[in-house]
């Protein structure tokens, strides 16, 4: 429930289930339990379900946005956060039903309302995707 207080995303676009290892202002780990019932698996791909890479990057952004709101406090709850850049995205192996993504984000820098993060998504400590991204909090 705390994630839904922090960011405005809702089903089917809320892509993190839990936040762990939160170090305010610095880093956090988001957890996404990937289920066969995810709506994107109906078309991507029915015979071999694969979580779209852009949704893994979105899960990184949601983890980072939740960290930002937890850091800045209640005045920022529910504010919109928009991507500004996505750099050096790499996808190392497919993510499918039954996988648990652990999404590690680390703040690289913050200036005013712009935050830059490095994200790595892992399954069983194996990197499956990574990217550097920045986003702006809108008033």
General description of the model:
- There is one protein chain.
- The protein contains two helices and six strands.
- The chain is α+β, with helices and mostly antiparallel strands.
- The mean pLDDT is 96.
- Belongs to the thioester dehydratase family. FabZ subfamily.
- This is 3-hydroxyacyl-[acyl-carrier-protein] dehydratase FabZ.
- It catalyses: a (3R)-hydroxyacyl-[ACP] = a (2E)-enoyl-[ACP] + H2O.
- InterPro entries: FabA_FabZ (IPR013114), FabZ (IPR010084), HotDog_dom_sf (IPR029069).
Distance between the termini: 23 Å
| Biggest sheet, spatial arrangement of strands | 1-2-4-5-6-3
Record field, number of beta strands: 6
Give the number of helices: 2
Estimated structural class: alpha+beta
Q: Which residues sit in consecutive blocks of at least 5 with pLDDT less than 50?
A: none
Q: How large is the share of residues in beta strands? A: 35-45%
**Percent in helix:** 10-25%
Summarize the biggest pleated sheet. Answer: 6 strands, antiparallel
Query: What does the radius of gyration come to?
Result: 14 Å
Order of helices and strands: HEEHEEEE
Mean pLDDT: 96
From the spread of the alpha carbons, the general shape counts as globular
Pick out its properties.
single chain; 139 residues; alpha+beta
Explain briefly what this protein structure is.
This is 3-hydroxyacyl-[acyl-carrier-protein] dehydratase FabZ. The protein has 139 residues and is an alpha+beta fold.
List the helices and strands and how they pair.
Layout: H1 2-6, E1 18-23, E2 27-33, H2 53-72, E3 81-91, E4 100-111, E5 114-123, E6 126-137
Antiparallel strand pairs: 1-2, 2-4, 3-6, 4-5, 5-6
